[in-house]
Structure formats: C-alpha cells, structure tokens
Amino acid sequence: MTRVYYREAVGALVVFDMTRLSTFQAVLKWKGDLDSKVALSNGRPVPAVLLANKCDQRRHGLCPKVPKLESFSQQYGFLDCFETSAKDDTNIDVAVSCLVKHVLSAQEACASSPPPPEGGVLVLPQFDYRLREKRGCSGCSGLRPPHVD
C-alpha cells in the first residue's frame, strides 16, 4: 500500500480470516508495511491490534495451524489480539475499545515528547481531535475523545 492510505492514521486493526491460512501468512507483511510507512510524531509505531476474524467458524478454521495468538502478537509488535466474528459481533467492541484506549494513550505520550529526527518513515503531525469531532462519523459517534480546551 502507498503512504497515502496511511495518512493521518493513529491506529490500525490488522485482520486475518481464521478460515484462510493465506491471510494469516500475510499478517507480518501487512504489519511490516504499516510500520515502514507511518509512525506517530514521537517516532513510535502506530498502535496496532491483531484480529483473528470468523471465530464463529472455528470448526472450519485454522486453529491447529495458527500459533498462540497472544505470544505471536506480542512478538511482532501488536498491542493485543482478539478472536472476532463480524458476523455475530463477537469481541468487535472490545477490540476497538482496546485500540482506542491505546491511541489516546499514545496521543498523550506524543504531546509530551519531542519529535525524533526525520528518517524514511512518514511522521504524522499532532492530531487535533476537535477537527475530527466537527466532521463527525456515524460509525464512531459513540467514541468521543475527552473534551480538549
């Protein structure tokens, strides 16, 4: 993917399909692409959570072939991992809430630390939540950041 797709990214959900091994095998490529093309203003990686989707189809899935997700996600720089089902809404709210919590924490850390020297990674400017709040988003209406004066 090009840097344009990552512009203004403050967090990422990397999702693979538990019923298709090829999607799991692509996880490290996607995470590497994310980390190589965007970083927070303090130089740290954009917070990313790993989602193993289609857990509702476990009997058809890759469970024996997929390594322990917790250790895998920690080893490769994901903040956390969740088995999810978009079909029956399993763990979607929990996963997104986890990511939002880390995004807000990272934002606070960025505000208090000086930016690193520029390199080959796109460094994002300070994110202004007030601009995002004015535009709004129907899908995110329940997730408002704390009021900033």
Automatic annotation (TrEMBL):
Task: Extract one GO molecular function annotation from the record.
Answer: GTP binding
GO BP, sorted A to Z: endosome to lysosome transport; phagosome-lysosome fusion
One Pfam family hit: Ras
Quote the PROSITE patterns the UniProt record gives. Answer: RAB
Q: Which InterPro entries match?
A: P-loop_NTPase (IPR027417), Small_GTPase (IPR001806)
**What keywords are assigned to this protein?**
GTP-binding, Nucleotide-binding
Q: Which GO terms describe its cellular component?
A: late endosome; lysosome; phagocytic vesicle
The UniProt family comment states: Belongs to the small GTPase superfamily. Rab family.
Name of the protein in its database record: Uncharacterized protein
Source species of the chain: Knipowitschia caucasica (Caucasian dwarf goby)
